[in-house]
# Entry
Amino acid sequence: MSATNSVSYRHIWTIAYPVLISLITEHLISLTDTAFLGRVGEIELGASALGGVYYWVVFMLGLGFSLGAQIMIGRRNGERNFAETGPIVVQGIIFMFALAGLAFWLSRELAPWLMSRILISQDVCNACISYIDWRAYGFFFAFAALMFRAFFVGIEQTRAIGVCSVVMVAVNVALNYLLIFGKFGFPEMGIAGAALASTIAEAVLLLSLIIYVRLRVDHEKYGFVESLRFRPRLILQVFAISIWTMLQFLISDAVWLFFLVAVEHLGERPLAVSNIVRSFSILLFMPLSAMAVASTTVTSNLLGAGQHNQVMGACRKSVKLCFAILLPLLVFS
# Structure
């Protein structure tokens, strides 16, 4: 973007659509779990809703931190201080692994105790714990992948995110079929197979992003060559930007968990139905989230480039694009 040209709709959409593909494919993991587990039983279908939302609530903490990192990366990219973007990614991954370790420990130690006290059905409780036991490993892969996503969005090169996300969902669909039903010699794991498939799919996503960075990104230009040194001050800078977003996401998404716990008290079938409805209704929020991510990185780059007068115009165009996408979906939904 030059100082004389305003941000175009095309530029915003170029950033947003791979992010939208990424968000949809990530949600397709939940949808494929729902589709496959619906053939296993109502208990497994309902338990996957509770386990999935629990995972998503914790995942949002990592997403909130990555958005703070994305803002800083976008600012440095706009300043053309490219060498400072890589260290933000690396230091963010260090923090994310620590956060994932804490989340993993709490999920394996605290979640069984919590679920046994808030759920009425013992069958749903046992299935939910089985799901979380395997799904908790995904925190390490998903949180690290979020930092790479923040990097690509921050430097306004989001194509890799969409491509790698498609690979992830393809792996998840295949593994769901193999592990849930025990096909082609694989063990029949039921709901645990769905959780393991999702975790492996996230590991494949992270590996794909690492390979892409390794092969296609200029390591020296973006400061990856000498960014392995631990820099706690940089982590604290990102955390200071991210903390309120992390709390906002945690509180807003925890409402879903409370809602599903309340539905579980009505019975196993209402919980299973709620999972299906939630899985499809949340798709409407994907364009909104994608445009928010695109708007954040565009404004961060503009501020870094000193083009403050273009910020509000870029925000207005992002809002108009979001309405253009959402209105047809709302009309036909």
Notes: The chain has a mean pLDDT of 87. The chain has twelve helices and no strands. Residues 42-78 form the longest helix (37 residues). The two ends are 37 Å apart (CA to CA).
